[in-house]
Design goal:
It is a single chain. By secondary structure, the protein is mainly alpha-helical. The longest helix is centred in the middle third of the chain and has 40 residues. It folds into four domains: 44 residues, no CATH class; 57 residues, no CATH class; 106 residues, no CATH class; 128 residues, no CATH class. The protein is globular, with a radius of gyration of 29 Å. Helix 3 crosses helix 4 and helix 7 crosses helix 9.
Length: 460
């Protein structure tokens, strides 16, 4: 009966059922059939007990902050949560969106953290700005300027896709102009990236739409030459928006890509020239390289310090019995140091130099399922310093989307008119639900988003 009560608690938490569900007759009749001595659970005496849990990821707190929320209030609330869990001296990074109050909160927390210990890379990696929010800011800078034109192109694609006959006429013009592209894309208005896809494809047909208009009097939404100029200009202005938000962009995003053995430094050499002018691309690439080597230097120094401490400890411990056939103890470590000396190809070449100079890893099979963490886990001896660095950096979230999804309850909003749940109970429900889902390996339900429609042109 005790175990059933605990499982009912997990069931309610995982699936966000109202407490009153435990009083339903059907549920209690079923339980009484299986356990004749079953005593009903009342929502008024509700409690849940959970012991012996072990998690890799925890939602530690869900805290209510009264409005208006200042940066100082946010910092105090976060620090209080960290102190309750006794991890205030273990935090290296905090991922937040781009609200100005968060900037203040992170500045205050960094000041607090530096009092007790040295932050990695001088605190440059402490503040992680949500990459999804940065992308959204870039998009919101560009799309509203051509909203009217976007509507025209959207309606044009809808109209042409309205019948097989229209698609055939459109495809015939495409063939006459000898265009290679053979599809249209209809965007999903809730996904801005699909709008960019629609525009990128539509530009390839900018000579087709006016010719189609001459053949179909019912077509009323044809973009004119000025419209296409604005669309192309907006696409070109992506460079300016990239530059505008570079200061907010996560250095960690770039480093994480470099620490993926499939990309390494090539990801910068490939992408930066597409985003910036030659001068800006070189300057930003230099900034990333310098910071990358700065971080590596700190990890290398830590490893050397750990090695020194280890040797000092051996000298103080003295002798011990070692099983026959094993070198063991100090000899093992001395042999490791010997290998480091005699097997170094280039004394001045660091592990980072060697890693970046080697060819990128080529996936065999499904590259989409490649896990960089698994690759580093299998290579601790080849790059011991980089191994520690990759383990720490690749575990850092570069977006707040996952956290927002964890706390999302759809349209279920708690307000003073509809609920008597206290903030503490709400925190218990959200955190407990996350813990129970991980314990039972249950994924949180996610609303399936609509996908853009890809329209293949018929053969004519």
């Amino acid at each position: 009966m005790t175990m059933m009560r605990e499982l009912i608690a997990q069931w309610v938490l995982m699936h966000k059922h109202p407490f009153i569900i435990v009083e339903e007759e059907g549920l209690n009749n079923m339980l009484k059939y299986g356990i004749p001595g079953w005593s009903r659970v009342s929502r008024n005496t509700w409690h849940w007990i959970y012991n012996n849990w072990k998690l890799n990821k925890w939602v530690l707190n869900f805290v209510r902050l009264p409005t208006p929320k200042s940066g100082m209030q946010i910092a105090d609330a976060i620090y209080k949560c960290l102190a309750e869990w006794e991890i205030e001296d273990k935090v290296q990074t905090i991922s937040v969106d781009n609200a100005s109050s968060n900037d203040v909160a992170i500045r205050v927390l960094k000041q607090n953290f530096t009092i007790t210990r040295q932050l990695s890379c001088g605190g440059k990696m402490s503040h992680v700005r949500c990459c999804a929010h940065i992308l959204n800011l870039m998009v919101q800078d560009g799309l509203p300027q051509i909203r009217r034109i976007i509507d025209k192109i959207h309606k044009s694609v809808v109209y042409i896709n309205g019948s097989e006959g229209r698609l055939k006429v459109f495809a015939k013009i495409v063939q006459q102009l000898r265009l290679s592209c053979r599809k249209l894309i209809l965007d999903c208005k809730t996904r801005w990236n699909s709008t960019y896809d629609m525009l990128e494809i539509a530009i390839k047909f900018k000579e087709v739409f006016p010719r189609y208009k001459e053949r179909d009097e019912g077509y009323k939404h044809c973009p004119d030459k000025e419209d296409w100029v604005k669309v192309e200009k907006t696409d070109g202005e992506k460079n300016e928006r990239c530059d505008k938000y570079w200061g907010q962009c996560n250095f960690l995003m770039v480093v994480a890509a470099i620490l993926d053995p499939r990309y390494k430094i090539r990801v910068i050499e490939f992408s930066f020239p597409k985003m910036y002018s030659d001068v800006e691309a070189r300057a930003n690439a230099t900034t990333v390289r310098d910071t990358l080597y700065e971080v590596y230097g700190e990890y290398a120094n830590d490893c050397q310090s750990s090695s020194a401490v280890r040797k000092g400890t051996i000298e103080r411990v003295g002798l011990e019995v070692i099983p026959e056939g094993s070198m063991g103890g100090a000899d093992d470590w001395e042999f490791d140091d010997f290998l480091d000396e005699v097997e170094t190809i280039e004394p001045n070449k660091s592990q980072l130099d060697i890693y970046l100079s080697e060819a990128c890893y080529k996936c065999h099979g499904d590259s989409e399922n490649f896990d960089a963490l698994d690759w580093w886990k299998a290579n601790p001896l080849k790059y011991p310093i980089l191994y520690r660095m990759a383990r720490d950096i690749l575990a850092i979230p570069i977006t707040t989307v996952a956290s927002e999804a964890t706390f999302s309850a759809g349209s279920r909003v708690i307000d003073t008119y509809r609920s008597s749940l206290s903030p503490k109970i709400v925190e218990m429900l959200l955190c407990g639900a996350d813990w129970c889902r991980i314990l039972n390996e249950v994924k949180k339900g996610i609303t399936i988003q609509k996908e853009p429609v890809e329209i293949q042109l018929p053969k004519v």
